[in-house]
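Sample intake sheet
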Amino acid sequence: MYSIGQLSKKTGVTVRTLDYYDEVQLLQPSSATEGGHRLYDDQDVLRLQQILALKYMGFSLELIKENLDNPAATWEQSLEQQLEMVKQQQRQLQALEQALRGVLHSVQMEDELKWPLIFDIIHLFQRDQDAVNQLYQKYLSEQEQEMIMQLQVERDKDDIQEWACIIRNVRAISHEHPGSEKAQRLAEQWMNKVHAMFGDNHQLQEKMWDVIRNHSGEVELYPMDEEVVTFMERAVRIMNERKG
């Protein structure tokens, strides 16, 4: 038999938590001493281990008690429900991660907090977590979508900052002729980054440019706004013409 202090030491569960489990009738001692001190037997220890395992898997204390106290409980169904809940939480966390990356990207791009833009980015992922993927589906095969997703995962902080710098510079000279010396330097940097990303896969590169060209300015493709896309398309065309 174990006193509450011994059980706490054996399992790492605090006495306060064991008191609470007793209070809500989740884990009650099998017996007590003449002085009223609670005693737990091996079955109580087993039940506590079950509680801890289920709690780790995300079950609420109410659901744990319901399942442990019901001999006819269908554990398979309970676990399937719990698994679906975890998957939903994962989707929500992935959407939150994408929203946070988008907000961080906007700060790096704009060098300030633009709250209307941040609201649009967050609202996008609240409204439709797969909005970007749905956009890609119109232009890319499943295999190509996977390739794009992998390219995005592989992007590091330096790569994102380099793109941000190029786009900021494009915005700064968008009033100039796209054949100017500054514009052509940026066109060269732009295409170097594109080639570093896509390599020799020109087909995928062209398809992605179709996505960007046709949906520039939409929050899903921030910061590729129409002004940047139109200017760089003209600058790159001039660069290629001059190279023959």
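Comment: The two ends are 89 Å apart (CA to CA). The beta strands are 2-3, 31-32, 38-40.
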